[in-house]
Amino acid sequence: MSSQIYGIRAVMEAINANQPINKIFVQKGLKGELFKELESSVRKNGISLSYVPIEKLNRLTRNNHQGVVAQISPVQFHNFEELVEQVLNNEKKPLFLMLDGVSDVRNFGAIIRTAECCGVHAIIIPKSGAAPITDDTVKTSAGAAFNVPITKVDHLKDAIFYLQSSGITVTGATEKADDDIYGVDFNQPTAIIMGSEDKGISPSTLNTLDHQAKVPLLGKIGSLNVSVACGVFLYEVVRQRKK
Questions:
Q1: How far is it, in rounded angstroms, from Cα 115 to Cα 120?
Q2: Both 49 and 96 in a single domain?
Q3: Contact 204, 157 (CB under 8 A)
Q4: Where among 19, 37, 72 does a domain terminate?
Q5: Rounded to an integer, what distance in angstroms lies between the CA atom of residue 181 and that of residue 45?
Q6: Predicted structure pTM score
Q7: Which of 93, 104, 125, 226 has CB atoms 3.0–4.6 Å from 130's, for a disulfide?
Q8: What is the pLDDT of residues 41-68, one digit of tens each?
Q9: What is the number of other CB atoms lying within 10 angstroms of the CB of residue 220?
Q10: What is the dihedral sign for C-alpha 225, 226, 228, 229?
Q11: What's the half-sphere exposure (Cβ side, CA atoms, 13 Å) at 35?
C-alpha cells in the first residue's frame, strides 16, 4: 500500500504535488544546490527528515536513489481548518481526537481502530514527532485508517486554540489530573488529547486545556498503554452520549 519515491527531483516533485510524505531519508554529507533546494522545501512543509548512511538507503531501495528516498503514506491527509469546519457543519456533537507525540505505529493503528468504532469525526496529529502511517499502522487499524479523516498541524497548541474558539471543549488524558474521566461532561462538542507513550502530554500543552482527567488505576502499575487509555476515554464519551 505505502510506496517509496527516490531521487532528488522526483522527491521534490512529490512535495510540490502535496503527496502525503511520511518521512524523507537523506544520505549524510549530500551537497549541492539542488539538495539545498530540497532541504528548504522539506523545512517549509514540515516534513520529517533523517540523515542516514548510504547503506540505509541501499536497504530501502535497490534503485538509483541519488542519496534521497521518501516514504509515502498510504492515506491522504486533510486540511485542518477545512476538516474542522466540515465536521462542525455536519455534527451536533463533534468528537475530535488529538495525539501529542504518539510515536509507535502499532499504538497509532490501534488508536485509529478504536476511534473509528467510537465515532470520532477526525484525528489531529502534529507534523513532527508523530508516528507515520505505514502498512503496519493500516494493518493494526484493521483498515480504519481509510475511514477516519486524519489531519496534520504545525503546532498542536494552535489547533487547540482553534478548536476552543469554535466551541469545542478540550480534555487532556493525564495521570497527573485530580479528577477522573467520570466527572467530565463529554455530552457536548469535545476534543480529547492523548499524550506520548513515555512523556504524556507536554506541560505547555496541558496548560491550554479546558479539563484534565485520568483513568482510575486500582493496581500497582502507574499507567495504561496509550491505546488502551484512549479506548477508555472514548468509550466514556460513547456511554455518556447514549444516555
A1: 5
A2: no
A3: yes
A4: 72
A5: 37
A6: 0.87
A7: 125
A8: 998 888 889 999 999 999 988 888 999 9
A9: 5
A10: positive
A11: 14
Distance CA 148, CA 226 (A): 19
Which alpha helices (H) appear in the chain, and where do they start and end? Answer: 8-16, 33-44, 54-60, 80-90, 105-117, 135-140, 156-165, 203-206, 226-242
Residues in the chain: 243
Alpha-carbon distances of 111 from 26, 97, 98, 136, rounded to whole Å: 30, 10, 11, 13
**175, 225 in Cβ contact below 8 A?**
no
The residue behind cell 462542525 is 88
Strand partners of residue 24: 49, 70
What is the number of structural domains in the chain?
2
Residues 18 and 131 in one domain: no
Tens of pLDDT, residue by residue over 203-240, are 999 999 999 999 999 999 888 999 999 999 999 999 99
Range of the domain at 235: 80-242
**Residue for grid cell 497527573:** 176
